[in-house]
Structure formats: C-alpha cells, structure tokens
Amino acid sequence: MRLLSHTFRCQKPPISNPRLSKSSSSSNKDLTLVVKSEPKPNPKQWCVYLIISSNSPIKTYVGVTLDLDRRLKQHNGEIKGGAKATRAGRPWLCACTIHGFKDQSQACEFESKWKEVSRKISYKKKDDMGKQVDDQTIRLLKHRQRALGKVKCLFDCSQFEFDWKLDPF
After folding, report:
1. pTM, 2 dp
2. CA 44, CA 67: separation in Å to the nearest integer?
3. In what order do the strands lie in the sheet with 47-53?
4. Is the separation of the CB atoms in 72 and 37 below 8 Å?
5. Coil/strand/helix, residue 116
6. Cα separation of 46 and 141, whole Å?
7. DSSP per position, 8-56
8. Within a 10 A sphere around the Cβ of 68, how many other Cβ atoms?
9. Other CB atoms within 10 Å distance of the CB of residue 96
10. Whole-angstrom Cα distance, residue 81 to residue 142?
11. Mind listing the pLDDT tens digit for each residue in 14-34?
C-alpha cells in the first residue's frame, strides 16, 4: 500500500488521531474515519478599498480584493504582486474599505465606476508651493469621498458597509 505522502509531497504523513478507530473485522488493518460535521467557515468577501501613499508623491489608489491584508502587503512591496502604479509613494495606508458585494463582478463594477467618477469630477490643486503634505492628503481624500458620494447614487448600497479609516471631515 502506497501512502498519500509518497504520491503527494505536500501531504503530511498520517498521525495517530483519536477520531480514527480501528475496524476489528478487517485483517489488513483498514481504518474507519469518524468525522463530526462542522460548519464551514464563511468564505472571504470581495472588498473595494482606497489606499493613500504616505510618501511623496502623495496619491490614492482604488482596488478590489478578497484579502485586504495580503493586498496591502503587495502594494507596500513586502510580498510579490503589487500594482505597478503603487510602487512610488510607499508605504501605503488603507483609507477606506467597502464590504458586502455579492460577487467579484459587482465589486469590480463598483471599483471601475469610483475610478471613472473620480477622474471626471474637478480636483482643485492649490497653487502655493508652501503647502504641507497633510493638506494634500486631506484634499485627495475629500476628492475620493466626493466621487464615492456620486457613485453611491448609481448603486443599491443597502448591503454595503463603508468603513473610512482616514476620514478627511
């Protein structure tokens, strides 16, 4: 008899388990598995997020993910796979998350619309060169928040949960 651990290298070899009981009627020592049915953990939900750079150039980025912690590590270069647009300005901070999307398609549609509206509404830049980084950060967050307000009118947002971690108001 060949063990699964020999066929599939990632499989750990069997260990003694109190849930396993020997079948006394079998001569080749087959094992009977006694398993209690346990509820499956909730699957991860799709999330639309807004991040903001904490170094120059100060900018924002809107994205979609199932795992925000992993994705933020990617954007910050801690693990492989961040978007090219987020290489400058590291480290990134999470400014807002939106949860409650029924599937990836709905989350991506919301993300796309938020980006589109953000590009279309006016963004006023100050002309004075003595502005502080905090002022620029607040202006960018307010701009994204205004755009999000317009996007909310285009969707049924009753099932969405909006969590502003860096609220500009």
Report:
1. 0.70
2. 7
3. 60-65, 47-53, 92-99, 161-164
4. no
5. helix
6. 22
7. STTSPPP---TTEEE-TT-TT--EEE-----PPPPPP--EEEEEEESSS
8. 17
9. 22
10. 28
11. 555 445 444 444 444 554 444
Work out the pLDDT band at 57, boundaries 50, 70, 90: confident
Q: What is the pLDDT of residue 68?
A: 96
Radius of gyration of the chain (CA): 25
Q: Are 50 and 60 in contact (CB under 8 A)?
A: yes
Average pLDDT over residues 132-141: 80
How far is residue 82 from each of residues 20, 33, 92, 118, 136, measured CA to CA in Å?
44, 43, 11, 22, 24
Q: Convert the pLDDT of each residue in 71-112 to its tens digit.
A: 999 999 999 988 888 988 899 999 999 999 999 999 999 999
DSSP letter, residue 93: E
